[in-house]
Amino acid sequence: MDSGLNQQAADNTAGSPEENKARKYLAAADEGNVDAQFMLGACYALGVGVEKNLIEAMRWYGRAGENGVVKAQLNLAILLEKGDVGKPNPKEAAHWYQKAAEMGNATAQFNLGTCYAFGKGVEKKTGEATDWFRRAADQGHMTAQFNLAICYSKGIGILQDQSEAIAWYTKAAEQGHAKAQYNLGICHAKGEGVEQSHFEAVRWYHMAADQNDVMAQFNLGRCYTKGQGALQDPYEAARWYTKSAELGFPKAQITLADCYYRGEGVDQSPQKAVLWCEKAANLGNSAAVKRLGKYKTGQA
To answer: I want to staple 214 with a disulfide (CB 3.0 to 4.6 A). Which of 149, 161, 249, 275 is the partner?
Structure first.
């Protein structure tokens, strides 16, 4: 038992309000109050009212979890998976995720789906992964909706169905999932699972690009360059290439280099062209290495 709490257990007026609460939780937890056991675990996990102690946190989460407190089961699983105390224990983590998932906790369902998808602590089973993603997605879990869309798009653990993929991408995208927004843009641009519409593609690219999705920013730049789904505008194209390039996307860096070399949407600057091409080359992009040689010899 924690000595720091016991030393002051008799004096409930000593210390801060947080410390007093922790002492009350300890007294109630020792008497079997499951809510107090969970709250005491949280106190130790966060260092609220007591010195942070993840071993004690896991102990109290475990006691509450054994008594059916779903949030305690989830929190214990997360600590076990992360391995903040000792080595990660994926098998035990999956065990506690399973308990919380079966009680309907969406986060636990998503995490358990991830365990099955990658074989973390359980045998890899894509069908099980998809099933748990669906349960979480049905409860509005954004990332589970995105993962379920991926499963339908690629036929992972379920029959391939682009229409279903679009439906789940849309649910996640409407909640603000940037990669779902980007993927929806791709689907609309190619007409995969939906009627082809470059205008819809640009709309979804914009949403993802505003969240700093580098590929969406790059694709949006291309749309403005080509006039697909948007008015042809080299300045707007260069602006989005710049955003993507500044975040380290090699294709955008090469394209921006070309913009500077030719003076398209930016003031012409062979020096800046070389600079951006070098950035892409330094990231191992072979096309940038070839382009760089042509820039330096004036043969581009």
So the answer is: 249
